[in-house]
Amino acid sequence: MITDHARSDAAPLERVGLLRQLSVDTGYAVLGLPLAVLSFGLGVTGFAAGLSTLVIVLGVPILTGTVLIARCFADIERLRFAAVLRLPRTRPIYRAAPPGAGVWKRIVTPLTQSQCWLDLAHTVLHFPIALTVFCIVVSWWAIAIAGTLTIAWDWSIPRGPDNTSLAQLVGLGDSAFARIAFQTAIGLICLVTLPLVTRACALVSATFSRFLLTGVAEMRQTITVLTEQKAAAASAEAAALRRLERDIHDGPQQRLIRLAMDLSRARQHLGTAPDALRVTLDEAIVQTRETLDELRALSRGVAPPVLTDRGLPSALAALAVRCTVPVELVVDPDLGTPTGRLDAAVETAVYFTVAEALTNVAKHSGAVNCWVTVAHGAGRVSVEVSDDGVGGAHVSRGHGLSGLDDRVRATGGTLTITSPAGGPTTVRATVPC
């Protein structure tokens, strides 16, 4: 199971005109048959020869050579169907033998990869599809051209009592006008529907090829990414709960214990030492206020009300104001409008990304200034947090940025950190939306 990742070599193809797409689809369908015949012959012959000689071990290199030939035809097909499907050109990653491996290891390695066998299966299964598509497309082109040009060649066909035209078969008579008009009408119908029929045939063949040659690898990649996102989300949630538990234990819980002790001491002074009672009650009031402030701060870390009520720009502005390092904030203003607001999950991810990055700046960077930029692009939100601190930040377990990496990956995004020794540090995150 080596080919669970695919490499993209180009951006998605732009839309093309009708005539250009017709030529692409026609070329794909017509060229597909000779390639299918050649790959089918080599694939079946090589596979049969390899199986029949396995008992004398000679079949192993024959099978390896067969799957490598199938891989070559598969690469050609991947280049061809990309233009038909208007998708970027992709190719699964094939595992190579490790450096220093022996000859036998190099021979056997291709046979241990599922994509190689899918390539070989494509050489066999695609042949009837390519044949059918070729016949339909070529026939449709022939009828369209010959039918619309009937008036130019009909005179050259010898007529006799034994020759029956299509017009006669449908009961339109044997006149030249009826014959030419009927055949021309059929040709025009085929000509008008030619782009649609050719497109449909090319799509059927190309979609089948894509499923075998890249689709399985893409599905594996998707499953792997989803699994990683699930693990990252669970890790980020667990880290957030541990941090919340620690903050409650170190903050409000200790203050509440102190408050209980002050109230107990106040009860002892009741009626005997009014001055000491007043001092103790004043301390209890201070502890109560500080506890409430800490609880409010913790609640902002769990579900910040300003984010829900006023949107991302206002919430990030509040973070910038509370940061102990001066922050220059630039946020796309559309993110704060009713029509430009992101999904709640995306807003929360961006908010906590900036919050955790600023916390790291304040605690560890030794920076004098910090810059935060949030931009909304096509299908994504980009976050950049830079500072002029000492640098040396990195993502690893036990460090503050590991939780940030988990949070970003849980949304399907990516996190990159550039932080050489001596600074500056730049944290970039991209969150899909």
In short:
By secondary structure, the chain is of the alpha+beta class. Helix content is 65%, strand content 9%.
Largest beta-sheet characterization: 5 strands, mixed
Number of DSSP E strands = 7
**Strands of the largest sheet, in order across it?**
3-4-5-7-6
Using the alpha-carbon principal axes, give the shape. Answer: elongated
Overall tally of structural domains: 3
The rounded distance between the terminal residues' Cα atoms is 31 Å
**Oligomeric grouping of the chains:** single chain
Percent in strands: 5-15%
Number of helices: 13
Q: What letter string, H or E per element, gives the SSE order?
A: EHHEHHHHHHHHHEHEEHEE
Radius of gyration using CA atoms only: 36 Å
> Uncertain spans, ≥5 residues at pLDDT below 50?
1-14
Helix-residue proportion: 55-70%
Mean pLDDT: 77
Structural class: alpha+beta
Describe this structure in words.
The two termini are 31 Å apart. The protein is elongated and about 130 Å long. It has three domains: 6-225, no CATH class; 251-302; 309-432, Histidine kinase-like ATPase, C-terminal domain (Heat Shock Protein 90), CATH 3.30.565. It has helices at residues 18-52, 59-85, 103-108, 114-148, 150-153, 166-169, 176-250, 252-269, 274-302, 305-310, 312-322, 344-365, 400-410, and strands at 6-8, 90-92, 327-331, 370-377, 380-387, 414-418, 425-432. Residues 1-14 have low confidence and may be disordered. The strands form two sheets. A five-stranded mixed β-sheet has the order 3-4-5-7-6, covered by helices on one side. A two-stranded antiparallel ribbon has the order 1-2. It is of the alpha+beta class. Helix content is 65%, strand content 9%.
